[in-house]
Every structure is written in C-alpha cells, then in structure tokens.
Design a protein that fits this description.
Number of strands of chain B: 5
Shape of chain A: rod-shaped
Low-confidence stretches of chain B: none
Oligomer: heterodimer
Strand content of chain A: 15-25%
Largest interface: A-B, 26 and 24 residues
Radius of gyration of chain A: 44 Å
Order of helices and strands of chain B: EHEHEHEHEH
Largest sheet of chain B: 5 strands, parallel
Mean pLDDT of chain A: 84
Radius of gyration of chain B: 13 Å
Mean pLDDT of chain B: 92
Helix content of chain B: 40-55%
Number of strands of chain A: 17
Largest sheet of chain A: 5 strands, parallel
Strand order of the largest sheet of chain B: 2-1-3-4-5
Distance between the termini of chain A: 105 Å
Strand order of the largest sheet of chain A: 4-3-5-6-7
Structural class of chain B: alpha/beta
Distance between the termini of chain B: 9 Å
Structural class of chain A: alpha/beta
C-alpha cells in the first residue's frame, strides 16, 4: 500500500522515489518536489530504488536511465516483474534519452513519461502531476523477447559514444598540452601567433584560423558562423583569434572552451615574446651604436696622434721638413679636433635628450639671417648652395639649436649628393597659419623608399650599406630639437629625385 | 725601394699615412676606396696593401675578393681597422696582419717593416 496524505495546508502529498546517480540531479528533485509538498526518497541506483519502492510503495518513481550497477531499464524490468509493485508509474528523467529506439523501448516497459535534462521546473512539476493523476498503465505481463538485446545495444551504444567523447577530449587536451610546450620554446612573437592559428584550426577542426587585430581586418570577418576569442593578457588585448567552420559544421561549446584555453596561453606567451623581442632590439641597437660611435671617434683620434707625432719628428730633426705638408698637417689637426668635438657634442645631446635634460635658451631670432649665414658659409667652402629667404622672419627660439638643425640638414645634403650639385635652402611662411618653414632641397640620389620611415630614428643610418654615414644621430637630434620648439621636421621625396626636408616652427 | 698602397677613405688619415711611410723611404700610392685601389693594382705591382674595411663604393671585403680574382702574384694585405675585433676582420679577408685604429706613428712603420723587406 502506498502512503498518501495531505499536507498542513491541504494539498495532496504524494510519495515519490527518485533514482539518480548524480548528487546534483538528486538534490534538484528533492528540493523541487519537496517544495511542492511531496515526500521524496532518493536512491543512487536502480537497486537502491527497488528497495525503497518495496518499503514505501510510492505513488511515482522518477528514474535516470544511465546509472551504475543497475540502470533505468533494468530497474523497470525488475519492477514490472514483481506483482506487488508492478503498477508503479515511472518517469524517465535523463540527458541521454533522445533516441527514437530508446523511447519505443521505454514505452514497451510502461514508461510513458519522458523528461530530458535539463527541464524547466514547471514542466517537471506538470509531468509529475500528470503521471500521478493518470490511471496506472498496467504493463504487458511479459517483456518483449528481444528486450535484453535491445536494451544492451542502447546502453553499449551510449557507452561507445561516451568513450568517443572522452577519447576526443583527451586528444584535444593532449594537443593543447603539446602546443603549450612548443609555445614555451618559441621566442619570435610572429611565430607564436602562427603556431596558435595552426593549433586552433586542428583543435576546433576549423576550415581556417587567423588573427584579427584592430589594424588588420580580414575578409572572413563578416561570417556569422565564425568563432572569435579575444587574445588578452591581464594587461592588454592584442586582438582576436578567429576560426571559421568547415562545410556546414557548427562550433560547439566544447570547441569554444578549447579555443579560449589556447587563446589565453597564446596571449601570455605573445606578450612575453614581444617584450623580449623589444628588449633584444634595444640592446642590439645600443651595441651597434657603441661600436659605430667608437669607430667614428677612433678615426679622428688616429689623425690627431699621427700628425702630432709627425710634426714632432720634423721639429726634432728626425724627419725632413716640408713646409707645405706641415701647413696642411696643422689644418688637419684643427679639422679633426673639431670633428671630434662635434661627435662628442652629438653624444652629449643624445644623452641629454634621453634624460629629458636638453633645455632651450630662447631669445628673439632672425631666422632669415640665420639661414642665409649657414648658406654663405657653405658657399665659401665651395659648395653650390642657393638661398631664397623671405626678409626678416623673426621667432622666439634657441638660435644655437636652430643653427644646428639647419647646418645638419644642409650638411646631409652636401654629404650625400655629388659635389657641385645645387642645394636650395629657403625660408618662408607655412601654409598653416602661425608657422614658418625652413626647407632644404637637394638633387642627390634621395633615400630608398624602404628606408624613409626610419630616417628620424636614433642611430639609424639610411646609407649604412656603403659606410658613408656618421653615427646616425643628426636627423634624430634635429627632429627632437624641432619638437622642443613646438615644431617638427618632415621629409619629402619629389618625383624628379633628391629629397626635401622641411622644418616647421611656430612663430 | 718597396712600394705600399694605402687604401683609406678618410682624407686626413690617408694623407697622414702616406707622409709617414714616404718619410721611411717607401714608394707610396693611395686610394680612397676599394675600386680605386683595384685600378692602381691593375696598373702597377705593389709590395703591400694597407686596407681600411669600412669604405664607400667598394669596401675592404669586396676589394679583397676582387683583388684575389685578378691574375697574381698578389701583394700581402694588412687590415687597418677601427673595428673592435681587428683580428677577426683580418681573418675574414685572409690578411697577412692587422693594425687597429687608433695607432701611433711607430706602430705603422714597424708593421710595414715586418711585411716588406
């Protein structure tokens, strides 16, 4: 006999046995049904549920299908075999319950109510109410002869499927672990991203995988079925990794989880690789600079030492006197000492700029006069320099530093163009109001397009290949000085060759 | 009288070396880059080549390669360089010796004396 009664508030209370191997599944049913006024008894498997049914004669059993030891089908078969409890209604409540075959089999065991996990609480309660209200369907006295075979096939199919899923997940995890190891060894940031794309494609069986950054939008972007996971470290987002499905396949939540794990590892490694790469580049640039600086300093020093010793030998009578050579030696001594002094000044300037300690000594400057003086000095040295300066343009600036800029630009023009080629220097008003321009135009070989972007970089030598340049500091220092004045230097490369440097300064 | 070819792009240094060596009694020729040096060597035989490495037009490496392709005999090359590792520069062009910048007057005369009789 089953126990049936009313609760204090008058509602009918039923006794329900729940069989589910998952604790969360049991807890859900216990609280949901208990709250609805039912007495609920729970078991972890079919055998436990049978014991409860024998003891309590419940109004209803809610059973999971896949349970250890004794599953749902076996439970129902044994329940129907025992006349004392055979008429107990049963609801199958399971995530596994979707195959047509399994439904048919369940119906033949007299299980008419099927609930698929997860179910909304109101659907569950409605189904329970319906099963309780409906007259108990007395099952066929004999189960179909092929019951065991069909039952076993269903369960084993399900197990094979589960085994495949486990195998698949473990393969993907292994691939991810392997990726992590390879990633750890990779120090090139670009190759880190390449590796991530390759592995992402394998991991999610995607047709393609690529990196999307703010700057590079790919043509795949619009695809609605693409899956996109952000490449973010705790401090920065570097873009997204995007995969597109092959054929009609759709990405699963599992795919997304794996892609997210991959993206997290990738972003961290990418960030480290990027930092290491930048650091290595800075160290290389510094080493190169030291080596170039040493080289540039050694040449004038060798001249100074040599000429001093030669003149000493002549003075001591150990070498023959040659007044013409001696005169030139004195010129060389002065010239090389000045060169050395310029190099040292450049090094000091860079050092001050880097430390933010280069300060301007501002006064009223006649820019036109300053530029004309530089041009005149070069003409006196025999260079072909034309100046075209609007009269008396004045501005507040550091005269010494402005002269340094103009000299540097004009000397570059002189140094990198064949002797005798015209160099044009101009001063005028800029097209933007409140600014003036100094322009230096040469008709030399110009700067190769690939190198133009870097000419204002520190230590960069556009003509390094033929060893024709100095330390690669002139344009860098000039640009920084122009910036300190609130202006800037730009480079133009006219169609007919050569280059045109324009210094724009506020008046 | 032994002959020495000074290959150096720095005008001041080239002139200075030529003066020092002519004071020692050598017959001196000069070249401002590797290409000019090759022209000199095609015109006349020299006993020693003093070679700067970083030069425009044709540098020390390019010069050494092209020089050895000319019909012999070849004068020994002594590398004169401001590079940190002068010895390895000298190995790179299979030179007979090297002189690191900055050097003094006597360093130059001694070295040249060792390589020409």
């Amino acid at each position: 006999m089953s126990w049936r009664g009313t609760s204090l508030d008058g509602r009918i209370v039923s006794t329900i046995v729940v069989a589910d191997d998952s604790p969360t599944g049991r807890d859900l049913l216990l609280s949901l049904l208990g709250y609805a006024g039912h007495r609920v008894l729970a078991a972890e498997d079919g055998a436990g549920a049978l014991d409860l049914v024998h003891t309590w004669h419940p109004d209803l059993v809610i059973a999971d299908v896949l349970m250890p030891t004794m599953d749902g089908f076996e439970f129902v078969r044994q329940l129907r075999d025992d006349p004392a409890i055979a008429a107990t209604p049963v609801i199958f409540y399971t995530a596994e319950f979707h195959e047509y075959e399994a439904r048919a089999l369940a119906q033949r065991c007299g299980v008419l109510h099927l609930l698929t996990k997860p179910t909304e609480p109101d659907v569950l309660l409605a189904t329970v109410a319906s099963a309780l209200g409906r007259p108990t369907v007395v099952p066929a006295p004999e189960l179909p002869p092929d019951f065991q075979e069909r039952h076993l096939r269903l369960v084993s199919d399900r197990l094979v499927l589960s085994a495949h899923e486990v195998e698949d997940a473990s393969e993907r995890l292994a691939a991810l672990v392997d990726f992590g190891i390879r990633l750890f060894r990779e120090t090139n940031p670009d190759r880190v991203l390449e590796m991530a794309c390759t592995t992402a494609r394998e991991l999610t069986r995607a047709a393609s995988a690529f990196i999307e950054t703010e700057h590079e939008q790919s043509q795949h972007v619009d695809r609605a079925d693409a899956m996109r996971v952000s490449l973010s470290s705790p401090s920065q987002t570097y873009g997204s990794i995007v995969v597109t499905p092959s054929g009609n396949a759709k990405f699963t939540a599992e795919d997304e989880r794996f892609l997210t794990m991959l993206a997290t590892q990738t972003a961290l490694r990418y960030e480290n690789a990027l930092k290491a790469h930048e650091l290595a580049q800075a160290v290389r640039a510094r080493d190169e600079f030291l080596s170039i600086a040493a080289h540039e300093l050694k040449t004038p020093i060798t001249s100074l030492v040599g000429y001093a010793q030669l003149l000493g030998a002549v003075a001591n009578g150990r070498a023959p006197s040659d007044p013409e050579r001696e005169g030139r030696a004195l010129q060389r001594l002065e010239q090389q000492a000045l060169k050395l002094s310029r190099l040292v000044t450049q090094l000091m300037d860079v050092s001050s700029l880097q430390a933010g300690k280069l300060h301007l000594n501002v006064s009223d400057v006649n820019l036109s006069a300053l530029v004309r003086l530089v041009a005149t000095n070069l003409r006196d040295e025999g260079y072909n320099v034309a100046d075209d300066a609007i009269q008396n343009i004045h501005l507040r600036a550091d005269a010494v530093r402005l002269e340094q800029i103009v000299s540097n630009l004009v000397q570059n023009a002189v140094r990198y163009t064949p002797r005798g080629t015209l160099i044009e220097v101009g001063v005028g008003f800029s097209s933007s109001a409140g600014f003036v321009e100094i322009s230096v135009r040469d008709h030399g070989p110009g700067i190769p397009p690939a190198k133009r972007a870097h000419i204002f970089d520190r230590f960069y030598q556009a003509h390094a290949d033929n060893h024709a340049s100095g330390m690669g500091l002139g344009l860098y220092i000039s640009q920084q000085i122009a910036r300190l004045h609130g202006g800037r230097i730009t480079a133009e490369f006219p169609e007919d060759g050569g280059s045109r440097f324009v210094v724009t300064l506020p008046v | 009288m032994s002959s020495v070819l000074v290959v150096e792009d720095d005008d001041s240094l080239r002139e200075m070396m030529a003066w020092i060596l002519s004071n020692e009694g050598y017959s001196v020729e000069t070249a401002a880059d590797g290409a000019i040096a090759l022209q000199v060597l095609q015109r006349q035989k020299m006993d020693l080549v003093l070679l700067d490495m970083r030069m425009p037009v044709l540098d020390g490496w390019g010069f050494a390669r092209a020089y050895r392709e000319l019909p012999g005999p070849h004068a020994p090359i002594v590398v004169v360089t401001a590079a940190r590792d002068a010895a390895s520069r000298s190995q790179e062009v299979d030179a007979a010796g090297y002189l690191a910048k900055p050097f003094e007057l006597e360093d130059l005369t001694k070295l040249v004396g060792q390589h020409v009789s």
